[in-house]
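On clarity, I found the account of how folds are encoded harder to follow than it need be. Since the whole study asks how a given chain folds, the encoding of that fold should be made plain. The format is easy to grasp once an entry is in front of the reader. For illustration, here is how one protein appears when written out as sequence plus structure tokens.
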Amino acid sequence: MSELTTDAMRERARATLGVSGDGHKERFRDVVRREHLSYYPILALGLLSVADNFQGYAFTVLTPDISRTLGLTIGAILVGVALKGFATAIAPLPVAALSQNRARRALLCIITGLAWSILTLTSGFVISLAGLITVLVLDGLSTGSVTSLHAPLVMDNYPPPIRVRAMSSYAAFQLLGSVASPLLVGLLGGIAGFTWRGVFLILGGMSVLMTVAALGLRDPGFGKWDTDQLKASVREETGATVPAAQADALSAQDVALGFWEICRRMLLIPTNRRLYAGAATFGMLSIPLTAFLSYFLSQRWNLGAGQRGLFFAFYSFTGVVAILLYGGRGERQYRESPSKVLRAGGIALAIGVVLAAVGAEMPVFGAMLAMFGLAGASIAVLLPLLYIALLSIVPANMRPHAQALVAIFVAIGGLLGALLLSGFQSQFGLKGSLVALAIPGVIGALIVASAGSLIEADLDRMIDAVLEEEEIRQLRAAGSHLPMLACKGVDFSYGQLQVLFGVDFTIDDGEMVALLGTNGAGKSTLLKVISGIGLPSAGSVRYRGEEITYLDAERRLRLGITQVPGGHAVFGPLTVIENLRTYGYSLGADRKRVEAGIDTCLNTFPRLEDRRNSLASTLSGGEQQMLGLSKALMIKPKLLLIDELSLGLAPVIVGQLLELVRQINAEGTAVVLVEQSVNIALNLAHHAYFMEKGEVRFDGRSADLLARDDLLRAVFLQGAGAQK
């Protein structure tokens, strides 16, 4: 497509995803009726989230009673809280892994719902610290589905025009659990007179019933209302149909990202990194807050279990009201610009933590209650806004992973906060500790708000990736030629130092390409991006039309991509034969093939035969390059990347190595050659790229590059004219 058409498609895609720029919103029920949807998914997920709150909030409200019965100190309780926080953080990871390739999120939600219901019942039978910690940890593990799967299921059940309100409704349900749980605890423990053990048994029974009510929940599939719609828009624009499978296409298993590859990709998204940092600082506030607040109410205001339950119910109820009131405004803000959503969330969080700190200092109970009520309302607004922002910029099947990583960072912050505030409590008391919580809260608010400057670009990158994938599928279906490997718009940075800027690079089957340029131009870095040693911060790498941008290097090796790095092509502590066997590792258990490959290498390079038992570190430079090139003879790659083959070698050795490169290329292997010598590189390759300061300055025939004195003189000085 032309650049103009691509820009138009991007704008259309943003509108498809609900970012229209006009702030207009349709009525929720009108969209539900038009699309023949149901309110049941929100209800079912909401019931599960309410039930999930029972054990946690009952423990929070009843902490003083439990500690007295079991003879536990505040420090011991905080250890249990911290361990549960870690369990809660770890739990979403396996749940996300189980759901990434198959749409079975609803089933996982129901199974884990039954698990935490049983654990709530079990809490009533705890008689020791070990038993208490065991129940807390297992309850944290069972709650992983709420963290990683609920919000993605809401995203996939409802279209973008009502998605913020759907998410707000679900978030209100979550907070409703925070209202119902302490309220029930207060009523059962305070008014009805049940012991804390009886409270857990009753809540456990209620949790079982609520989980049963959610048995009708179904998974609609990944990206029903976003990814699928974007792909359909490409087909509509081009007039094409869904392409049939191609015989030469890679299988989905070959290029599908694994769990850790997906997690790593999530961490490469700038907005995500900023939000995860905000989540860590927010965790320092949120996890210790509930435990400290319960003790604060008991010691400062002499509130019993029933009264504390009513306080937490009020605190959470203000959040429910705030979310429901803010949902429509949040929808308009998202349609105008997702950046407004994050800025609004940051402001709300900052206001909330400041109000909580002020509330801790109030000398009058009514004023304290009002401050904490307003704080709860402000902090609660952040939840649905973060859900929408985070999940809108990642592929649909990776949303559970994005959520799981949030839990990890919140838990890390929570542990640090618990340890830090335990020390504060011994020095400044409970009230001083609550005031201190405002510090990480405000820092987290600033970080979240600052992510607003990044989200628009990340949304466009996600859209471009989906559109590019569908366009390539259409090209393949139409029989159009696709290069073996294509890099498009690649950016790469070492920390804060960016070294590649929008690099485009292609190579076809059996082609040999010379990659030239100044020192520090980014040539070796580009090879690292192609081979998977380095991952780009923007852009894509496609192999036979399939995206491999975030695929691990060892998996690219199995696809037929290998690299001979300049000066680092051998394992020094290993012998020549051990190096060759290492290269043969990718051949699997086929020992005959490995031995045949070793024989081929030794026959090709007799010098290596003579030194077969010598350590690679003792070889000369030329011998090490021979050994490095033997990798290509062993595994016979489809694409060979060679970095500085002739550097520091005698002309005779260089000639031998170049002859081997020609032979490898003649047998069908495509070769990318980074070379310091213009004469060598351009005599070998018919196609050349020239890079300078991280950008491609020339892409064309080698003979045409020889005529570009302005490029070559910067690198080769007088040698450029002599070689013409």
User: Anything to note?
Assistant: The mean pLDDT is 84. The CA atoms of residues 187 and 306 lie 6 Å apart. The radius of gyration is 30 Å. The beta strands are 485-494, 497-507, 512-517, 538-543, 546-547, 561-564, 639-643, 670-674, 687-692, 695-701.
